[in-house]
Amino acid sequence: MYSSVTHIFSQHDRDAIAQHIESTAIQDNSSFWTAGWPNEVEAALLDAVFSARATYGGTDNGVRRVISRWRAYRSTDQLDDLTELASFIDRPDDLAEILDNRQRVAGNSTTKAEAVAKCADVLAGCGVRAADQLLDADDQREAVTAIAGIGPKTWECALFLVGRRTPDSLRHFVAYVSDAVGRRVEGELAEILLDLAAESMGAPHAALEHAVWRYQRRIGPAAPLPSLSEAG
């Protein structure tokens, strides 16, 4: 008889997931093997906005360079106060200068620096200052996605980077693991199997999830697969 408890320890599934990681998101070839920014809402917001429609880069360029420049400006190891970014709402060019980045949002309506300041400002208006206050809440989501050039994917990215796992992120994990094992894996079992994969690799779970999530998000939803019962 099928048991989800014993099934999650299937060596066949573990091998299949490990092989899928090897071919799609191996650590040596992926810039996304980081845990995100679980206690740094400023870094998460910068990452979410500046990674949209852009090359992520490595440790010294791209998105992480933007965050490094902001960290140097703030002179702190803890970027967890959105009011600091919101203070640039009336001087976005100064923020773009600090970040040394003048990329523009989708639609070209404004710079990403200005969009970040606007996001921080509206979130502060919703009572969000620190990472533990950024939630998958309607008022926060609506305030952020109402900003020109900021869509649902950017919002989901910010949530993911502070450690929130929404139904959207869970769907990506399900699609990734299902594709690896060749059948539909339901619900939180996908996260458990990724956790087992991370353990077998000696890798942080959050870093593996980040790499997998970014990969699956880029390629889009997988085609539906039969469940175990449907496959026989």
TrEMBL record:
Q: Which protein are we looking at?
A: DNA-3-methyladenine glycosylase III
